[in-house]
Amino acid sequence: MSNDPHNSHRLNFWQKYIFSTDHKVIGIQYGITALCFLFFGFCLMMLMRWQLAYPGEPIPFIGKFLGENRAPGGIMLPEFYNELGAMHGTIMVFLGVVPLLVGAFGNYIVPLQIGAPDMTFPRLNMASYWAFLAGGITMLVSFFVPGGAANSGWTSYPPLADIATTGQTLWILGMVFLITSSLLGAVNFITTIFQLRAPGLTFMRLPVFVWAQLVTAFLLLLAFPPLEAAGILQLLDRVAGTSFFLPSGLMVSGEPLEVSGGGSVLLWQHLFWFLAHPEVYVLILPAMGIVSEILANNIRKPLWGYKSMVYSVIFLGFMSFIVWAHHMYLTGMGTAINAFFQATTMIISIPSVVILTCLFISLWGGSIRFNTPMLFAVAFLPMFGIGGLTGLPLGLSAPDIHLHDTYYVIGHFHYVVAPGTIFGIFAGIYFWFPKITGRKMNEFLGHLHFWPSLLFMNCIFMPMFVQGLAGMSRRLYDGGAQYAHLQGTLNLHKMISMSAWGLALFQLPFIINLIWSMCKRNIVTSDNPWKSTTLEWQTPTPPGHGNFPVEPVVYRGPYEYSVPGAAEDFTPQNKPGG
Amino acid sequence: MDFVKLFNLPINASSHGHEVDMIIYLVHVLMLVLFVGWAVYFIVVLVKFRKGKNPAANYRGVQSHITSWIEIGVVIVEAVLLIGFSIPFWAKQVNAFPKRTDTVEIRVIAEQFAWNVHYSGADGIFGKTDIQHVDKQSNPVGLDPSDANGKDDVTTINQLHLPVGKPAIIHLTSKDVIHSFSLPVMRVKQDVIPGISIPTWFTPTKTGQFEIACAQLCGLGHYRMKGFLTIHSQEEFDRWLSEQSTAGKGGEEGYDDFWN
Ligand code: HEM
Ligand SMILES: [Cu+2]
Ligand SMILES: [Cu+2]
Q1: Is B45 near chain A, with CB under 8 Å?
Q2: Please, are residues A46 and A30 in contact by the beta-carbon 8 Å criterion?
Q3: How far is the CA of B188 from the centre of ligand 3 (A)?
Q4: Which atom of ligand 1 is nearest to the CA of A90?
């Protein structure tokens, strides 16, 4: 084909590594960029943790570099704390985790796992990365405009966000780029998975990871447009004097607000959570997919209940669109609406339980290898379990009266996204690194990364449940030091913060391992070092342009390990016969 | 059972608070049972089926249908919590407001970063308010001076006083952004949304001095948007209220920084 971006003429450096249309290069670009953002979001959080543990004390070393308008004399201002909170949330979710799960792993692995030469629309794929980068840069720049970055929470509730400083405008613009990026990616994933599966690769033979990516793509495609529309409305409220989200008769700092009014404050919340609840499944489904691949590979037997898992993932996808108002129980809801959203929320917990149960039951009868990717994948299960279980009291509106907007919520969703999703991401990096680079990561450093991370993650987030039950609100600049009823749980802040810095310290083995393994030996001698069944391992290492020297043909399901009577304990999907 | 001690909750000083605590307890029992069950199984499996102990995996794995039964069990327990406890509780709180005759009814108007409290005074009728009359210290809720009903109204900043044992209905609005009216000891939390007035109610069961917290990010002073709740006996409350209406609107320095 003449317009095939993979044509054989030699590509120069820029075409090959920077403006590449190869899904693998784009995946790596996404991965490196998003890891940097993840690290940056983590650093913002570490600053917040100082202020929470030692409210009003100057930040050592770094404090004096933050500038007089953020931390005069090294002491953080409340405005700056709010910037850090809003941007930590935004960056972690939209610039760290989603790009890693979808942009990096999805891009690199999905075409390989379905036996495709590339994504259906390679140029859209490239555009998706550049839109993402533009969004990220916009968010970073926003720290340097007058008044600093967005400071109304990652949820950007108006009227607060409508009247916030310029940083909020850049937040919206940044989000428009990021949403564009996700939409381009989503269209691409859906068409690729529908159109480019290798012969014989029926839907019920797809790896769980591909299923997770497919449902994720639908969530992004259907949930993001309402947020984009809402973002534009908020932008107009801010710059064009409209009042979509502003009622009449507002008065800010003693002065009447000069707007026409008549808008609805709650409209934003509905539009926002209509995206943001499906978004939490975007943050978890691909991680579940990664964990499923790695579990199957290391227990050396098929996953138990593959079909139930697939149906559960699809069902989760559907249900995630009708639970959004469980974030709004306390906005003045009547009984009927309230009962509806409580019921859907309880129903959506069932498929999650099914998936987790299938993974647990899969372990029975296995011959379990504990390498580094497996350690992270195994730890994902109980950690995600805690995150999921602690969602139950928040999903019932009666206990939510006490727990809403407290540290209990922070603990709950961080168990899902930090020792949950982030562990899934680490597992994936250790697992697919040999395919991407042709080298294995060091096992000793891997263990040195895993065990302290597991310990510290729990020391960070477990005490938050205690603080939340004591009634400690989230987003407090001084961590609740003002309140008499919180004095008993304030000292936990110190332990949490120490653990957060400890967690940072023990990411060093990972970073060293990543760079060191890339440069140094430990070259894998096989294209399939983990003895895996799925198609991404049946390619050269690293896969060249077009991925497969000959188009693979698929004969069986994804996890045919330890088949009775087979010569080896794994039977690749493309191995002819039976 | 003493749920407050068990979960280190704030003390409970309202008549419905115990029900909230009980549902918190029941859900946590379900969570604990599931977690401990899973955890025990998990550890057993990881030890029993490690490669060193079990060199060859079993292709078929578990054959029984016990998991379906566990899942059905979870569904039933969740349904009971939902239909038996949470929905009826909400219905009672939202639909069954106490009769107006034997209640105290007040308005709370939130702003960055204070709680303005408005009592209707002896006539039981709130005076008209409008933002054009607002003055931060002397007329924080914007009472219309030409409205006779407002003459005996009482307003305070950050001071909420209520009698014990009598249902209190609080109408919540905001002047500027969203706040959330949180009385941890009363197990009351209600978002305060500009443009609409949302009522909430509870019956205090203990006298004493408690705190009002803002639970929704409302700007740089969100962390210090604290108010003071005092629950009196009926006589003390009546005395306090009459002192307020005669002693003026209470704008002295430091008035709103402690229980007053
Ligand atoms: C792994 C270490 C992490 C730690 C120690 C951590 C810690 C925190 C802390 C202290 C807060 C603010 C609490 C407050 O002031 O109310 C917070 C908020 C938040 N975090 Fe994290 N976090 C971590 C990772 C993540 C990840 C991976 C994500 C997302 C995928 C994430 C998403 C959020 C969000 C959305 C918020 C709410 C921001 C807001 O209030 O608007 N965090 N986190
Ligand atoms: Cu949700
Ligand atoms: Cu507030």
Answers
A1: yes
A2: no
A3: 15
A4: 35
Which structural domain range is residue A118 located in?
A: 26-247+260-538
Q: How many CB atoms lie within 10 A of CB A37?
A: 21
Whole-prediction pTM: 0.95
Give the CATH number, domain containing residue A402.
1.20.210.10
Cα-Cα-Cα-Cα torsion A238, A239, A243, A244, nearest 10 degrees, comes to -80
Q: Calculate how far, in angstroms, residue A247's C-alpha sits from the geometric centre of ligand 2.
A: 26
- What strand order describes the sheet that includes B188-192? B159-163, B227-232, B208-214, B179-183, B188-192
* Pocket (CB within 6 angstroms of ligand 1): A 45, 48-49, 85-86, 88-89, 92-93, 97, 153-155, 283, 410, 414, 417-418, 422, 460, 474-475, 500
**Interhelix angle A372-389/A423-437, nearest 10 degrees:** 150
Q: Which ligand ends up closest to the CA of A157?
A: 1
| Residue A417 alpha carbon to ligand 1 centre in Å | 9
**A391-406 tens-digit pLDDT:** 999 999 999 999 999 9
Domain count for chain A, please give it: 1
DSSP state of B143: B
Lowest mean pLDDT among A62-66, A453-457, B247-251: B247-251
Whose structure tokens read 């009927």?
Answer: A336
State both tokens at A155: 């949820």
Q: Does B13 touch chain A (CB under 8 A)?
A: no
Between positions 141 and 160 of B, the ones with CB within 8 A of A are: none
Question: Is the per-residue pLDDT at A4 higher than 50?
Answer: no
CATH architecture for segment(s) B100-259: Sandwich (2.60)
Whether A404 contacts chain B with CB within 8 A: yes
For residues B141 and B155, the answer to whether their CB atoms sit within 8 Å is yes
Q: Is the peptide bond before A60 cis (omega within 30 degrees of 0)?
A: no
Residue A536 has φ and ψ, to the nearest 5°, of -65, -20
pLDDT digits (tens, 9 = 90+) for B131-174: 888 887 788 888 888 888 888 889 999 999 999 999 999 999 99
CB-CB under 8 Å, B60 with A475: no
A401 domain-assigned: yes
